[in-house]
Design a protein that fits this description.
Order of helices and strands: EHEEHEHEHEHHEHEEEEHEHHEEHEHEE
Number of strands: 17
CATH architecture of the largest domain: 2-Layer Sandwich
CATH class of the largest domain: Alpha Beta
CATH topology of the largest domain: Dihydrodipicolinate Reductase, domain 2
Helix content: 25-40%
Number of helices: 12
Number of domains: 2
Amino acid sequence: MQHNILIIGGNGLVGKTIARILQTRNPHFNIFIGGRKAGNTSRNLQVDVTDPGTFQTIIDNKINLIILSVNDKADHVLKFAVKHHIDYLDITKPTPDLIKAYEIAKHNQINSRIVFSSGWMGGIVPGLVNAISDSSEAEEIKLFVYYSVKDLAGESSAHFMAENVAVPFHRYQNDQPLSIRHFLNTEVHDFFFGIGKRNAYNFDVPDLYILNRIERIPNVSVKMTYNSKFITWLLGSFQYLRVYNILSLKERKMIFGSSGNGDQAVFEIIVQDKNGHKKLSLQSIKGQAELTALSTVLHTEELFRNPHENNIYFSHQLHEPLSLLAQLNAYETINTHLTHEKNSNHQRASQ
């Protein structure tokens, strides 16, 4: 089987990181980089997501998997992949765009693997939920995100927050959507990995939709904190005073556009079921770009390793959950920690 993989947006931070990890682990893969301008080698292709006229090169180079790491609001690449029976893996979409793309895919005949992986850090959260608890028995999921302004983050992260910070979104309570806004509704959370107690605020990621609407977990929430307590407070104050509503997109991008030279990224998943609650803490020493890229690579390897049928998938549905957790643990810059508190006798186990 051919392994001709095109990373559209491959010149960006996450795209470059995907290419590096994927090629290091799989030197036999043929990796092509797609960007708005053609590069200096035959592996650098001109593919502009806003211009489907540039897509012929995908056919010419016999690409059999497209990894989309740049925003394609019109879903031109998705439609092209469906039409030409090419496997497709998208890691880019905020929740409204993901829902729209999922509906497009559902209304087409699918003759390839169409994979949506737009959740937090490459869509691994639902898979990790299933690794520590049976999602059919889960009553509530809480995701807490620790983000450092020192992290080496790409432009897409800042652009996403700038576009969406003033837009209401939904968390789910008793299987019903509740409209909320970013950086409000303080909840104190005690993070592992030496971070300690932090005020965390509402944050929108596609996992809210995926865990409720796809995995059918009735109560789902996501909250975020920054490494700087002052910045966390300031962003919440701006939202409370509705400052974001009067700022231009350019001004909002300046607020969220700070990017350092590298720092850790941490998130924690708390699963409540009939037996008690479990907390999985995950630390990426090299930050969010490295973890997002690694997750994307794991999905790619899984697509080529096992004969998944032509269908529409959310990326966690490709994996055996414990195998996904094991592969993450095996990566040298990823650390995890699991605690479990039972309802019956409140005994606490840790590993």
